[in-house]
Amino acid sequence: MLAFLGVLIAGTALASSEDDGGKFLPDNPQWFGWLCILGGPVLFIILGLYGGMIPAIFGCVFVCALGDIPPPINPRRSWRPA
Hints:
The chain has 82 residues and is mainly alpha-helical. 57% of the residues lie in helices and 0% in strands. The termini are far apart. The model has no long low-confidence stretch (mean pLDDT 78).
């Protein structure tokens, strides 16, 4: 029921009542970030079934955090500086 409510809210946000000519979605969506953030809970379920709670939490947080990393400009520096 909560998932249906979330889809309903997202659907009403996409269907704007005002015709302002602008687009709601960005021109360049970040698909890698979406994939990592949506893949985190899937990995949590898989690792939770077969590995336990600690590996599931670690895997979920690690994969979701990868979605926040921008693509490297220099291949030698793949992680953000602290």
